[in-house]
Amino acid sequence: MSQDRLIKIAHKPTGEILYTTKNKKGVERKIKLKKYSKKLRKRVDFSEIKK
Predict the structure, then answer these.
(1) CA 8 – CA 3 distance, rounded (Å)
(2) 9/44 Cα distance (integer angstroms)
(3) Which of the residues 5, 31, 49, 51 has the least number of beta carbons within 10 Å of its own beta carbon?
């Protein structure tokens, strides 16, 4: 995984942090992804934060 394409996404209420890749040329805005939260044991929205 290329380090410059790597972004950090977090779920604010639980404080969970995940890493994923992003196409920097095609996507200019901050992204929101639905991912599985281990703490809540369901799918929740994770949003992009600063590295």
Answers:
(1) 11
(2) 12
(3) 51
Residue-range domain boundaries for the chain: 3-49
Looking at the domain 3-49, which fold is it? Rubrerythrin, domain 2 (2.20.28)
Cα-to-chain-centroid distance, residue 7:
7
Say how many residues make up the chain. 51
Residue type at 47? S
* Cα–Cα dist 7/51, whole Å: 7
Q: How far apart are CA 47 and CA 32, in angstroms?
A: 4
Per residue in 15-46, pLDDT tens? 999 999 998 888 889 999 999 999 999 999 99
